[in-house]
């Protein structure tokens, strides 16, 4: 299968050099990096706002830029939908008119793609049609902005920090809609974010940028559980992502039991049918290690595994991350350097991961 998006470009902006290369066949590719790492510049190259001095951009098999062949498809012909930090709706138009404005740009000759009903249903905005943007919450505005972009039948949706101006509650409200869009709409998404929690939850493919270069690119779960990606592993939000499924409920204990390839996990009772697939996240700071199986411990979740890699010291030098392999699933544990020494951890050491808390990302 060819990649959904392939980028290999070199471009100089004043003192800054963008020299970025990645290929992703993910449904949602996140561009992640510190401020000034080049995320916006790369987005501008993908969208056609910047014509790179050298290189190629291919979207869904279509060559948008090939400097050697003199190809440069202009921005308005790339069929890219945008969602920005601010919804940028037309204040004098109703929600319906804002949405239909998007459709106006859809290629007339082409059948298929999303209808207004599909979009209203996906984003839960049918009841807002007659309102003006001024009467919407921040989260509702963003959902309308996403709908407007989808109705233009884009080949690719570019979402540039779409949640950055929302408070935590509004973010939590909109995340499930972005997941539905990612999983059910068939439009690849490039998503720019500063937030590890957002990336962990949404991205299927992660591209990490540093000083204009791609320092890592790969499946999100794989990168998140590596101890040698400092921008991820040393953050307070560092942690592993596991695919899970609801196995059964234990109402008498108020628990739901999840199955994962690493072993079963018990979580506080969730009202989800058996078989429901979900993604869980286990923060590195919520994992302790033991060399022996444990009795008499209050933690419910203990998974056997072995150390697969040890990261470098960071912070004031007192902490490091250890990657575990639990039956082929990567977990990350944050330890003090002293504990790592006392346990004499080395790649291959058998350990038990004692998990203090599991967070559920979906639904
Ligand atoms: N037109 C320009 N001329 C010169 N330098 C530029 C230009 N545009 C961007 N830069 C520089 O390029 C670097 C990367 O900027 P860019 O906006 O791509 O980063 P970013 O990762 O999106 O940052 P942020 O997260 O803060 O938005 C910065 O150092 C910026 O000052």
From TrEMBL:
Domain Mop: from-to ranges: 296-363
Pfam families: ABC_tran, TOBE
SMART domains hit by this protein: AAA
PROSITE patterns reported in the protein's UniProt record: ABC_TRANSPORTER_1, ABC_TRANSPORTER_2, MOP
Ranges of residues in domain ABC transporter: 1-236
GO molecular function annotations of the record: ATP binding
Key words of the record: ATP-binding, Cell inner membrane, Cell membrane, Membrane, Molybdenum, Nucleotide-binding, Translocase, Transport
UniProt family annotation: Belongs to the ABC transporter superfamily.
Protein name from the UniProt record: Molybdenum ABC transporter ATP-binding protein
Species in which this protein is naturally found: Bosea vestrisii
């Amino acid at each position: 299968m060819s990649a959904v998006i392939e980028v290999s470009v070199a471009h100089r902006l004043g003192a800054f050099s963008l020299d970025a290369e990645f290929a992703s066949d993910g449904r949602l590719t996140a561009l992640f990096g510190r401020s000034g790492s080049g995320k916006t510049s790369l987005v501008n190259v993908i969208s056609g706002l910047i014509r790179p001095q050298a290189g190629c951009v291919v979207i869904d098999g279509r060559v948008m830029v090939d400097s050697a062949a003199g190809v440069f498809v202009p921005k308005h012909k790339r069929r890219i939908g945008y969602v920005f930090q601010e919804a940028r709706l037309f204040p004098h138009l109703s929600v319906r008119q804002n949405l239909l404005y998007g459709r106006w740009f859809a290629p007339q000759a082409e059948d298929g793609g999303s209808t207004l009903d599909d979009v209203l249903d996906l984003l839960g905005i049918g009841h807002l049609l007659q309102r003006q943007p001024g009467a919407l919450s921040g989260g509702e505005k963003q959902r309308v902005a996403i709908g407007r972009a989808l109705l233009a039948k884009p080949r690719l949706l570019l979402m540039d920090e779409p949640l950055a101006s929302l408070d935590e509650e509004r973010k939590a409200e909109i995340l499930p809609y972005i997941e539905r869009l990612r999983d059910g709409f068939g439009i690849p998404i490039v998503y720019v974010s500063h937030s590890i929690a957002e990336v962990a939850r949404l991205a299927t493919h992660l591209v990490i940028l540093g000083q204009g270069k791609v320092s890592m690119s790969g499946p999100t779960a794989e990168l998140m559980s590596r101890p040698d990606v400092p921008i991820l592993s040393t953050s307070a939000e560092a942690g592993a992502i596991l695919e899970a499924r609801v196995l059964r409920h234990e109402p008498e204990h108020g628990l739901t039991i999840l199955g994962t390839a690493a072993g079963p996990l018990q979580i506080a009772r969730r009202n989800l049918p058996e078989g429901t697939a979900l993604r869980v996240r286990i923060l590195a700071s919520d994992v302790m290690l033991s060399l022996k199986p444990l009795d008499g411990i209050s933690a419910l979740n203990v998974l056997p595994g072995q150390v697969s890699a040890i990261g470098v010291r960071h912070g004031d030098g007192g902490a490091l991350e250890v990657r575990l392999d639990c039956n082929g699933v990567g977990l990350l544990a944050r330890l003090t350097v002293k504990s790592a020494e006392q346990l004499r951890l080395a790649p291959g050491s058998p350990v038990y991961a004692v998990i203090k808390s599991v967070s559920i990302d979906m639904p």
